[in-house]
Design a protein that fits this description.
The chain has helices at 17-31, 86-91, 94-111, 113-116, 167-179, 235-245, 311-314, 316-334, 341-345, 356-368; strands spanning 11-15, 38-45, 54-58, 73-83, 124-131, 136-147, 153-154, 159-160, 188-192, 200-202, 217-222, 252-259, 262-264, 267-269, 274-280, 291-295, 306-309, 348-352, 373-377. The chain has 10 helices and 19 strands. With 379 residues, it is an alpha+beta fold.
């Protein structure tokens, strides 16, 4: 059977509207005209429902780096670059931007820093332009991924965790995982699976790993993907780390487990976790940095930025109009059920005279925001 190339599911960004509120406020009160990169934080999870994309979520807590995530949510460090003009947003050197982020990941891998702090393996860059007058935002996410010069090959077809570990081994593994890795939001770790013995969980920088056979190690990661045959984007840089620190010979078969931990109707499922065997070669310290990819495609699957217009939820004029419309509809329920508010909203009013009575009528009509237009004739 011909060997297959390993493919990955890219991240899909999802932004809470609250993030744009906080960004607008910070732009006005703190950033001003500064265009320096700002550290932010997103998170992903390995408990996504079947059929959901590989989500990276960024919400209103993104600027609060001390904000802790719930178990099952794994923080992803990010860098926000907010431009002052739409022209700067369009002409910014996108490749240079993603290369700088990837270089930090590469250095953390080559130095071994990522062994002690696995969260350094992945990050994101967010390029934005905020039109504060129109409450509209252009943005583009990049998820830097290091790719080798030749494709990564699978030794065999991907399968599920139940084909590799017994039920008792899975339960033992999950117990240790809940007590250690999950409570600390540790996205990458190793399962030691010696023949005829119970499995054990190890951190990437555990000194005892160097004395173990590569065939007894299962390199595990929290997998945000829900597709049965393809792992999530975070595995790309994890493979680079494995090649640098664990693979010692050419064309070694490396065991990898993408852990997917879902709860449905109170029942926990991990059977859909993906098990892979890939063929890897060592990466020496003097190697040149691998190529970099990672800019997110838009909703039309093109390498272009995305756009969101929040004027209906953030523009005070729209908010006032909605409030007036709501109040009138609530009053209609009790006082005039047959009142046609749509017809009134299209009405134009001519007011003759602005004396004692007309002045108050004119003022009420003008502030109502419901009459289409008011013409005042002074007599």
């Amino acid at each position: 059977m011909a060997q297959l190339n390993l493919q990955f599911v890219p991240f899909t960004s999802t932004l809470d509207p609250g993030f744009w509120h906080v960004l607008s406020q910070k732009k006005l009160d703190e950033f001003g005209l500064k265009e320096d990169a700002v550290n932010i934080q997103g998170f992903y999870a390995n408990n996504n429902a079947q059929g959901l994309p590989c989500l990276l979520q960024v919400d209103f807590t993104a600027f609060n780096l001390a904000n802790g995530q719930h178990p099952g949510q794994y923080p992803l460090p990010g860098s926000l670059l907010n431009t002052n003009t739409i022209d700067l947003f369009k002409t910014c050197n996108k490749q240079d931007l993603i290369n700088k982020s990837a270089k930090k990941i590469w250095d953390a891998i080559m130095s071994g820093e990522a062994l002690a702090n696995p969260q350094l393996l992945n990050s994101f860059t967010m390029l934005t332009f905020a039109n504060l007058k129109k409450y509209s935002y252009h943005y583009w996410f990049a998820f830097p991924a290091l790719i080798p010069s030749s494709p990564i090959l699978l030794n065999k077809q991907p399968t599920s965790i139940s084909q590799v570990l017994t039920s008792s081994q899975i339960q033992s593994f999950l117990s240790s995982y809940d007590l250690d890795c999950k409570s600390r939001n540790l996205p990458f770790f190793i399962i030691h699976d010696p023949p005829g013995k119970s499995v054990a969980l190890l951190t990437l920088n555990d000194a005892s790993v160097s004395d173990m056979k590569l065939s007894e190690l299962i390199f595990t990661f929290a997998d945000p993907s829900t597709i049965s045959q393809y792992p999530g984007w975070v595995l790309r840089n994890y493979i680079c780390l494995i090649c640098r620190h664990f693979v010692k010979e050419e064309n070694c078969v490396v065991r990898i487990l993408g852990l997917r931990d879902r709860t449905v109707s109170g029942q926990r499922y991990v059977d859909h976790s993906i098990y892979l065997e890939v063929i890897l070669s060592p990466l020496c310290a003097s190697s040149e940095m691998w190529s970099v990819v990672g800019w997110e495609k838009n909703q039309q699957k093109k390498l272009l930025p995305r756009f969101v217009n929040l004027s209906k939820t953030m523009d005070p004029t729209h908010i006032a109009e909605s409030a007036v419309d709501l109040n009138l509809k609530l009053m209609r329920w009790r006082l005039l059920p047959d009142l046609n508010l749509e017809a009134i909203s299209k009405t134009r009013c001519l007011l003759l005279g602005a004396g004692t009575l007309g002045c108050n009528v004119a003022r009420n009509l003008l502030v109502s925001d419901y009459i289409n237009s008011v013409y005042l004739c002074m007599l």
